[in-house]
Design a protein that fits this description.
Strand order of the largest sheet: 3-4-14-9-10-13
CATH class of the domain at 93-114 and 230-437: Alpha Beta
Largest sheet: 6 strands, mixed
Bound molecules: pyridoxal-5'-phosphate
Strand content: 15-25%
Helix content: 40-55%
Distance between the termini: 36 Å
Length: 476
Amino acid sequence: MKYLSTRGFPQKKSFCDILLEGLAPDGGLYLPEHYPHIDAEELKKLESLFFQEGYASLAFHLLKLFIDDIPSEDLKELCDKTYTKAVFGTEEIAPVRVLHEGLFIQALSNGPTLAFKDMAMQLLGNLFEYELNRKNQELNILGATSGDTGSAAEYAMRGKKGIRVFMTSPKGRMSPFQQAQMFSLLDANIFNIAIEGVFDDCQDIVKAVSNDLPFKKLLKIGTVNSINWARLLAQVVYYFAGYFQAKKLSPKTHISFAVPSGNFGNVCAAHVARMMGLPIHQLIVATNENNVLDEFFKTGIYRVRSSQDTHETSSPSMDISKASNFERFIFDLLDRDGALTNKLFSTDIDAQGFFDLSADPRFQAIRHKFGFTSGSSTHQNRLETIKDVYTKYQEIVDPHTADGLKVAKTCAVEDEVVVVLETALPIKFAATITEALGIEPSRPKSFEGIESLPKRVVEMPADLQQVKDFLLENVK
Ligand SMILES: *Cc1c(COP(=O)(O)O)cnc(C)c1O
């Protein structure tokens, strides 16, 4: 299996070549040159394999279709080591539960940081360690986070050989729980840097370091952002697992997924699963007030927002100005025309801030051919949904999951079960739960009292040179 860029760069690469890379050299995103097809018979085999041998085994069988440069035994070992009850809390890893006969929830948020990013990041940590060891290399990950991504990366990379993580975050702006989660990691290879500023200041510093190529090379700096193909690939697995469980629980003809979306990483994995032949009926894209994606699926116009136009909401992990994985879907939509994708995402977006596919017949076929539908949600919707779910089912859902539930309701059709992905546990966003219900969500035992644990964090002004000096001091 070779990988190509969405912008038409001629050279193809293998999985391990792109594993530690970010963007392709032409600024595009990597995709496999084709999607392996799973026919009905093979799907049946995977289904019984999942119920007999479990999630790790399903992951191995799916991943090996995309990865041909890691020996099978090693890949199997990596999957077995990653997807365990000890790390993800249940035997099922991503269990599906019933709210009512047409509405299920799939929990992706029982990993170490209580958000779905663990599902992929835990595998990435093991893949990185394996590949760096094989190449006899080191990697220093530099990132910026406003919450979920940074802590998932740190929990995945802690204690890993050959890897250090330097994570910048805006000082005092994450929730107390999120701060405690990150800063209480005392591992020698994890460095928390609290920047006096906002998230954009952190991101600007990371970008400036990445653009300083000699420095980047000298210190072997890399990233783990959501455009990494391996992360997306790891997410494909839980759609299969979710589909099999839903099918077992429901006699309905159609099975669909509703996905709380920001950067389009999660739902892009659903798109890949569907392209492989998993018979998902609808892919329901749920956004919050930052409705870039909902606008596209409704109008055919993809319009990037300015930072002034990007709202701070109560489902903050979906607060995006553009959806960084969206280019992957557009490339498929346009029959994999790299030149046209390049024109849309570099020329059109740079010149006018948007592109318009409303007149393209391929846009008209999106729903039929690719299954996509969409909707958006507001703070008020979120509060009402949280209250409604609590009243009807005595369950507390987090605000992102509430966005998924709200939109699922508006998109559901006859004889269909919609599986809403639970992307975080409510305790991470306790303030919104308290606003909706007047009570605090409970927290898993292992997180009791984390706010009072010793902390390891350095504080710095938003100053590029000071961050660079800190990296130089700590990379030995
Ligand atoms: C990251 C995140 C999302 C958005 O996922 P994308 O892959 O960026 O679409 C939704 N909910 C939570 C809790 C997240 O952490």
